[in-house]
Amino acid sequence: MGRKPKEETPVFNRLEEVREARGLSRHELALGADVHYQTIGYIERGEYSPSLSLALTIAKILRTDVTEIFSLEPFNRRKATVK
Amino acid sequence: MNLSSSTIAIVLAACVIAVAAQAVWIFRKYDTFRLRRLLGFRVPGESGPRQKLGRFYWNEGVFSGEITQVMSAEYARKYRWLLSHTNQRRFVVLATTSWALNLLGAFDLTWSLGFSDSLFSWWSVLTVISYLLVRQSVRALADAPTELIDERLTEVRDSAYRSAYRLLGWIIPILGGLAFAAYDAADETLTFDQFVFGLFCFGFIVEGLPSMFIAWRGKARELS
To answer: Is the ipTM above a cut-off of 0.95?
Structure first.
């Protein structure tokens, strides 16, 4: 029962890499972004695409550009560079 | 259907006890002295940190402290059995099955399955218990005010409510139509007992279905 969910454009991310490069835990990042700690896990696993405001907030906390974390194209498997 | 007054009393008592137990649980867990403060009495020397109930949300019927507590990682660790997705699905299956049998009772069909009055009363108690298990396992989300949860959880909650009430849009007219047809064909009128059980089942499904959706989908409280 119910409607089939609409196909969404996939959003790729390398949040886990960037977060670890910054030395932050999921809980710490969640606390800064004012979201539930599991939400960070969902974003990292690609199971949830954050809103623009949340993506920008996360980028701000990690002191990087939002395009360094989120992209419509798959990222190369290079390590995240922390500026 | 000839439900004895003791049968109805057992069902009603189970509902009252369940509500009272939940109220006691909230007050004991979150603030032992809240009632005392509300009544203006002084609180004796308190030891250790005390959890605050915080603001009460009337629409949702929850305290902010309650939601914050049940959303925490500590709570998830402590009540792993309640929050595991497998158990949440078991609660949903149990609640749905017991609800369906209660609904059949409202149409006098349960007795043809071999249920006695006494067994049916206990089955009704099981319905209340399974309903409470479902509700408690997803309460943090199902009853959470939007300002206390993030955007993903808001979407999980709202989509569950949307799906549930869309489904109810089908269930209620179909069951109502069947009931009307059945009573019309049998040339019977609705007895008070049948009405009470029908009302019980209606309230249960309207109140519980969104929580069942959240529990079944399991996107709310997986342990990670």
So the answer is: no
Domain range list for chain B: 83-224
A51 → chain B, closest CA residue: B151
Query: Is B147 in CB contact (< 8 Å) with chain A?
Result: no
* A2/B152 Cβ within 8 A: no
Q: Tell me the pLDDT of chain B (224 aa) as tens digits.
A: 455 666 677 777 877 887 787 777 766 665 555 666 566 555 555 444 455 677 888 888 888 888 888 888 888 888 888 888 899 999 999 999 888 877 776 666 655 666 666 777 777 788 888 888 998 888 888 888 988 899 999 999 999 999 999 999 998 888 888 877 877 777 767 677 777 777 878 888 888 899 999 999 876 544 33
Residues 6+ apart with CB under 8 A from B135: B142, B208, B211
Query: Measured between alpha carbons, how far is B59 from B74 in angstroms, rounded to an integer?
Result: 27
A8 touches A47 (CB < 8 A): no
CA angle in degrees (0–180, nearest 5) for B185-B191-B195: 100
Q: Give the residue carrying structure tokens 């629409």.
A: B59
CB-based contact, A58 to chain B, within 8 Å: no
Residue of A nearest to B70 (CA): A36
Whether A51 contacts chain B with CB within 8 A: yes
CA–CA gap between residue B220 and residue B218 (Å, rounded)? 5
- CATH C-level class of A12-68: mainly alpha
Residue A35's Cβ-count burial label (10 Å; 0-12, 13-18, 19+) is buried
CB spacing of B151 vs A51 below 8 angstroms: yes
Chain A contact for B149, CB < 8 A?
yes
- For residues A29 and A33, give the distance between their C-alpha atoms in angstroms, rounded to a whole number: 6
Q: Does B42 touch chain A (CB under 8 A)?
A: no
